[in-house]
Write a structure and sequence with these properties.
The protein is mainly α and 375 residues long. The protein has 19 helices and no strands. The radius of gyration is 27 Å and the shape is globular.
Amino acid sequence: MSCPFASEEDNENSQANKEQGPVYSSYLQLDKLLSAQVPLSCKENGRPAHDELLFITIHQVYELWFKLVIHEIDWIRECFLSEKILDDSHLLQVVRQMNRVVEIIKVCGSQMSILNTMTPLDFMDFRKSLGTSSGFQSMQFRVLENKLGIKSENRIRYAGKPYLSQLPKDEAEKVQKVEGEPSLRDVVEGWLERTPGLETHWFPEFQRNVQRHFESEHEAAKDIQDEAAREQVEAACLRNLEQFETLFDEEKHQRLVASNVRSLSYKATRGALMIFTLRDHTRFHTPFTLLSLLQDLDAHLMTWRHNHALVVQRVIGSKPGTGGSSGYQYLRSTVSDRYKVFKDLNNLASFTVPRELLPDLDQKIISELNKSYFQ
């Protein structure tokens, strides 16, 4: 029904707008979005502290980014779980979406620099208004960490308590539920365990080449006249052999997993090494790109954590955080391997050897490489 007080022209314009669909502001619901920044300092001081709007905006933008990253990670996990990854075109799409995730996390890290424009005195103008609220209470970020694959036992206790204790009960339940779901780390591990070529003679031959190489170097070291230099070279050869033994001996690998030095399974680790080593083969171009992006993801998350810690130190120094943590000290402690989901991929560089030690790809191996991951 048209408005009885509107002119005929107004009614026609209204009908035209309906037919054209939503406009920019209504599509983005800007009325809701732009009214969500409500500084609380005005209740105490009569008018809001100038930098509180900056503080609120930055954190709301983070939450929007987290929402998008979770959306992308869920899609990627579903691709692996539904075995759509069987189709190489889906693997290419996974790479594109993972690249998007990495770019978003990169922005999150650089976005911290905006908060550096706020001085400690600026923050003090509204800090009381925050009460006990803290960025640690971001449910979405805890969900994101769990979906990526950060293990509960690796988490550093917050103010001496488990991380879930800092969240409202309903949010804690949602976060805990995600802990029981297959994480990105889990599905990538299963995918790597199916790497084509793992069951061929490539690895046994690689093992023989490596062992002969270091044994030869150890033998050659005996000709070094300087005793100290000779002992140093011999010790290095033995260390390298011991390192490679963890790649060739599953029991030794499992001991490293038990002590949290490694995370991926024995088979997945060997699969990842094949991809890194044989990345020039067309079969491994896209898998190598995906693994490189996972390395980038870890790196940029560490950058984000590092930048966060520096901003907090600059703004509040060594004071406790608003949520009761040790503030800068707590944040600095999270910039560690405990919070790297794919640290094993970086550690594969330990097994880099000269190209001449790599076995030739004969027809049997090439035939295996051409198989799908789920065959």
